[in-house]
Please model this.
Amino acid sequence: MPLMTRDDYIESLRKMKKRVFIMGQEVENTVDHPLVRPSLNACAMTYALAQEPEHAGLMLATSNLTGQTVNRFTHLHQNAADLVAKVKMLRLLGQRTGCCFQRCVGMDAFNAVDSVTYEMDRALGTEYHARFRRFLEHVQEHDLVVGGAMTDAKGDRRLKPSQQADPDLFMRIVERRPDGIVVRGAKLHQTGALNSHEILVMPTQTLAEEDRDYAVVCAVAADAPGILMICGRQPSDTRKLEGGQIDVGNREFGGHEAVIILDDVFVPWERVFMAGEYAYSGLLVERFAGYHRQSYGGCKPGVGDLLVGTAQSLAQYQGTDKASHVKDKIVEMVHLNETMYACGIACSAEGKRTASGTYLIDSLLANVCKLNVTRFPYEIARLAQDIAGGLLVTLPSEKDFTNPEIGPYLEKYLRSVERYTTEERCRMLRLLENLTLGPGAAAYLTESMHGAGSPQAQRIMLARLADLEEKMRLARRLAGIKERPVNTMQRGET
Ligand code: SF4
Ligand code: FE
Model:
């Protein structure tokens, strides 16, 4: 079976020669770096759970390319059940890690690129699809993490790529050679970049003919010459450097995002899956975004489960769990969390086959899913903070608890319900702080807002897909209003 263990994966990253900068310093060994390791642990869970027989149904799939058993993160969805299993897998991983485990972006990119290259080849006579499938076979065979890289720097939002003062503000082809292309640009907010073996770059928006050099899809090794990665900061990230156990909140896991600079990176033709076919850029963006909007219906409810558990535990520790308003708030959190999940499942169950055979989510429902995700986690976090009380942000450091003079005072005065220790209460408060204010909030809140497109992008899709004409026709039929000739209605002469 082409599957790596958790340890194989970590060792495979150790062998790579990525150029990575963290807080102004070039870092040779990111694998053991305290600011990166939690994110590596989270991504490594996608390997660890795949080795556990009880999770095989969710974590593994049979490749339609080779017939081999592969990790679902490298799989092309072959039916609606695959789409549903994906959402359940992401919920499981969210529950286990409490953060972004990063590997979904590549999975969503594979599925989008697969169907779009197939349709593009059929229409234009190009040969990208077979090339892409050969690349994906390689990914499956070696069980790789592939970072999906879409978001360009974008510069002045009013201007198209080629109109920008600096033409590199969107990634582009700067040279076409007999053996391949050279690309230049930057990709922002790149989830899991440091933990990836390969980067699959895609255009960020619908492009017109004058921007054909920006219509590029290709795969590059994450340590290819010309690639630089600059790791982003997160709230309270330096607590990871303190060496403590409690104040970090989530001791083992975290996420990261990075800026990826592609400074004249050469890509051989066999790794190029779009090079100038601008008419297909919009379709690719839409499909990738659709898959990733579905993904959020899995990973965010998984983290939401932890928040419900954290809030309920704190209520127990503090003796408020029987209060009716607290029970009501917990029920509201569950309701919001399951609503996000329900949308993730619904857009999967309604998935349809594309021409390449790969299944695509229902776009309208995936956009409803993500629009809920831009709001509900904030409300779930607000309710959890309400239940927790102000100690969430006034709790002294764990170093104060171990100080021989003041520690005993803190133990004494921060004890609540007798059967729970002060330390248990502190640990749970720190976990909630991590998830709603600290590094975890970067993924659970701000990423919920902007990841896979900001709320307005989903509203635009809802307006496009709502089929208002059909809804008006239904209303007219029930109201007993006769249909008018089509040409009269089209002129708006109602
Ligand atoms: Fe996966 Fe969620 Fe992270 Fe996106 S935000 S990569 S869906 S865990
Ligand atoms: Fe994301």
User: Anything to note?
Assistant: The mean pLDDT is 97. The pocket of fe (iii) ion (ligand 2) is lined by residues 191, 447, 451 (CB under 6 Å). The first strand starts at residue 20 and ends at 22.
